[in-house]
């Protein structure tokens, strides 16, 4: 303790925690006595008195902690309590002497005093509950990591304690710490810390809101705190930040929602809290990062069937088509294509909406890029049943490009789309003339079983047209690969289509010989026992051919 004389009074210049505790304990009875003598604003003073009466217990609990004298938070808390007690005495004197400046101002001052006492009581309780008092500054022998962990936990505790200005400073320091060691902050976090961060999303200070959402964004991206964020009701303030936050706050809020919207339940909640409209607005006007995150969030939401109509009413179809046309990042276009795929998966009205907004042409232009992705092809696949035959002439060349240059998933989706288009001899001939049959035959050797299956299905459908039959027959590899797909394993889902394709080719003596030489008879016997459709009949045709060949040689 350092004392300094000013006039006739001795002032404590640098009081210790014990000095502050002693002063607070002396001021409580003074404040209570003064408050009880006030005759005006009686209802407000009753509330203040009831709260002042709780302070001694609070001080006793705080001072009984083993680390009471070693922690700066205790000192700061006692300073806040002391200032509040002084204010209570001062206001009581004003009321007793009836020297208040005005009734409304005094009512406001008393309400403010009551809130400060309540805050001090709450903060004392939090100091005890958080356990931060037990983590006093470590001795010099402690590791740097231990000291950093202590520092982080103290900052997290400060987010829950004190006035907005002190929380603002703690939050700024926390953001700086996270730039260097994000893991240390996430490791030290508890649910109460998450709750305090969520509360700061609605602070009056824009910088506090911005820093709070920056930390929350990191938590959401880490993948370990999503449930806490949801349970602490983070969604409504995050949605509000999309509408009225600074550019940085909007970006961090939308990235947070992007991560959290992976859950269908959270996606529904985002819609329920009015999140669709601001997300769509960001897709229209946001920078590249915000646009991409917003498009991804809407893509996640569109995976929930019951909210698709709400999305459509907010204008999502036109916005996603526009992103496909003009999106800044390639990732944004991919999200837009996935969103259109989801929207058109089961709703004919939405399919019509996409078609009327020039969606087919936009998707085809997107697919004509250097590495077509599955989502764009899948969206086209959803739409082919709702377009005219003339439109097929535009779609099929793009599908051929995908079969040549697309990702494995895109190629599989393209073959599946071909199966949907191949519903008449006219469309089958159109597909055959496009040059896709050699690509489908090559796909019979794909590593992915799903790709082999859909390629076999497409060939089995196309080969029923004479022009396509001749092209498949000319390529010996087609028979070889189809026979290999007769393998009876339960995991081989292509075998029924391989049977259909080989049955169509069996009328060719050359193809039949190839089937026999590659072991089709043995496979078909096993498939007949498994009652795979068409396998028994194909086996009979091949064996009949073998018998004829045997007698002709005699």
Automatic annotation (TrEMBL):
Domain of life from the UniProt record: Eukaryota
Alphabetically ordered keywords of this record: Repeat
Annotated ARM repeat ranges: 233-275
Statement: the UniProt record of this protein carries the keyword Repeat: yes
Keyword Zinc: no
InterPro entries the UniProt entry points to: ARM-like, ARM-type_fold, Armadillo, DUF7032
Family annotation (SMART domains): ARM
Residue span, DUF7032 domain: 23-132
Pfam families: Arm, DUF7032
UniProt name for this protein: U-box domain-containing protein 15-like
Native source organism of the sequence: Camelina sativa (False flax)
Phylogenetic classification of the source organism: Eukaryota, Viridiplantae, Streptophyta, Embryophyta, Tracheophyta
């Amino acid at each position: 303790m350092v004392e300094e004389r000013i006039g006739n009074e001795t002032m404590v210049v640098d009081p210790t925690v014990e000095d502050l505790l002693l002063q607070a304990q002396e001021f409580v009875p003074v404040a209570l006595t003064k408050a009880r003598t006030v005759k005006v604003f009686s209802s407000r003073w009753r509330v203040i008195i009831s709260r002042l009466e709780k302070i001694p217990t609070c001080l006793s609990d705080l001072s009984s902690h083993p680390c009471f004298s070693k922690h700066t938070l205790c000192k700061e808390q006692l300073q806040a309590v002391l200032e509040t007690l002084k204010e209570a005495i001062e206001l009581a004197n004003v009321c007793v002497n009836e020297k208040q400046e005005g009734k409304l101002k005094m009512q406001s001052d008393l309400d403010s005093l009551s809130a400060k006492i309540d805050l001090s009581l709450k903060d004392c309780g939090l100091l005890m509950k958080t356990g931060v008092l037990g983590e006093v500054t470590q001795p010099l022998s402690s590791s740097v990591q231990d000291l950093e962990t202590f520092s982080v936990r103290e900052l997290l505790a400060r987010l829950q304690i004190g006035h907005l200005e002190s929380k603002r400073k703690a939050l700024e320091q926390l953001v700086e710490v996270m730039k260097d060691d994000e893991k240390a902050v996430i490791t030290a976090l508890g649910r109460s810390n998450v709750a305090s961060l969520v509360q700061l999303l609605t602070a009056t200070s824009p910088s506090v809101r911005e820093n709070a959402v920056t930390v929350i964004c990191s938590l959401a991206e880490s993948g370990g705190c999503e449930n806490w964020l949801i349970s602490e009701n983070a969604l409504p303030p995050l949605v509000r930040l999309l509408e009225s936050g600074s550019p940085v706050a909007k970006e961090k809020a939308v990235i947070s929602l992007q991560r959290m919207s992976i859950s269908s339940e959270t996606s529904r909640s985002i819609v329920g809290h009015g999140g669709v409209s601001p997300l769509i607005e960001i897709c229209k006007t946001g920078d590249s990062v915000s646009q991409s995150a917003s498009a991804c969030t809407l893509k996640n939401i569109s995976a929930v069937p019951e909210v698709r109509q709400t999305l459509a009413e907010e204008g999502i179809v036109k916005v996603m088509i526009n992103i496909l046309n003009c999106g800044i990042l390639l990732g944004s276009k991919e999200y837009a294509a996935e969103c259109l795929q989801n929207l058109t998966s089961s709703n004919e009205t939405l399919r019509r909406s996409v078609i009327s907004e020039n969606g087919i042409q936009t998707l085809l232009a997107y697919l004509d890029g250097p590495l077509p992705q599955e989502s764009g092809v899948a969206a086209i696949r959803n739409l082919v049943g709702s377009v005219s035959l003339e439109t097929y002439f535009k779609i099929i060349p793009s599908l051929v490009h995908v079969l040549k240059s697309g990702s494995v998933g895109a190629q599989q989706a393209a073959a599946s789309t071909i199966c949907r288009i191949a519903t008449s001899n006219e469309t089958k001939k159109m597909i055959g003339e496009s040059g896709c049959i050699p690509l489908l035959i090559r796909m019979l050797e794909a590593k992915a079983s799903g790709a082999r299956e859909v390629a076999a299905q497409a060939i089995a459908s196309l080969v029923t047209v004479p022009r396509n039959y001749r092209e498949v027959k000319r390529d010996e590899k087609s028979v070889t690969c189809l026979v290999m797909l007769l393998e009876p394993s339960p995991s081989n889902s292509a075998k029924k289509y391989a049977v259909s394709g080989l049955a169509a080719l069996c009328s060719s003596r050359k193809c039949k010989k190839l089937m026999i030489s590659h072991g089709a008879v043995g496979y078909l016997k096993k498939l007949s026992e498994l009652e795979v459709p068409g396998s028994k009949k194909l086996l009979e045709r091949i064996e009949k051919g073998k018998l004829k060949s045997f007698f002709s040689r005699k």
